[in-house]
Specification:
8 helices, elongated
Length: about 180
């Protein structure tokens, strides 16, 4: 799902929320997300569940820095991804997780276009050597397919008088 240059925060959060499905195939509640924004497991959350809900729905689009950092913790993504103009979750994750990637970019800094082109060509060759023939790596990694959501328990439908009588007879007869 390519995101444009002016992708709103709510759209980015929707992508991250879709990637955050649990083993049961359900997305976490806004309360669970708010609780995950805390710096420590038992710490105070960076925002309330209502603020999380407002951000997800687009009613609020400019969170405080502490809230932005809390969202990054909750969704396990680089905080820069949540900023305007930074849509490459894949590249930002590599940059944040791998010191060598940061070093490679630092070394290319003053080499200009030619250096960047050489680095890109070398990266493509390395991908082919490692058996990754697909050179089009998405901006946002594809999430795992969601598990089938089990049917939710709900109220039984209301029975007609005749159906209720038939069920009562069946219950009394033990069938």
């Amino acid at each position: 799902m390519p995101l444009g240059p002016d992708t709103p925060l709510s759209s980015k959060l929707a992508v991250l929320l879709g990637r955050k499905r649990g083993a049961d195939g359900k997305t976490p509640s806004t309360r669970a997300i708010a609780a995950a924004t805390a710096e420590t497991p038992e710490g105070k959350p960076a925002m309330t569940h209502q603020v999380v809900n407002d951000l997800l729905n687009g009613a609020k689009a400019n969170p405080q820095v502490s809230q932005l950092l809390g969202l990054a913790r909750a969704f396990e993504c680089p905080a820069a991804y949540l900023l305007p103009g930074y849509n490459g979750l894949t590249s930002l994750s590599v940059y944040e997780e791998h010191q060598d990637a940061r070093e490679a970019l630092r070394l290319v800094h003053d080499l200009g276009e030619a250096g960047a082109a050489e680095l890109l060509e070398a990266a493509r060759e390395i991908r082919l050597r490692h058996g990754h023939s697909d050179l089009n790596v998405p901006e946002v990694p594809e999430p795992l397919p969601p598990a089938a959501e089990p049917p939710r328990p709900g109220r039984r439908r209301r029975l007609s008088f005749t159906e209720a009588a038939e069920r009562a007879v069946a219950d009394l007869e033990g069938t």
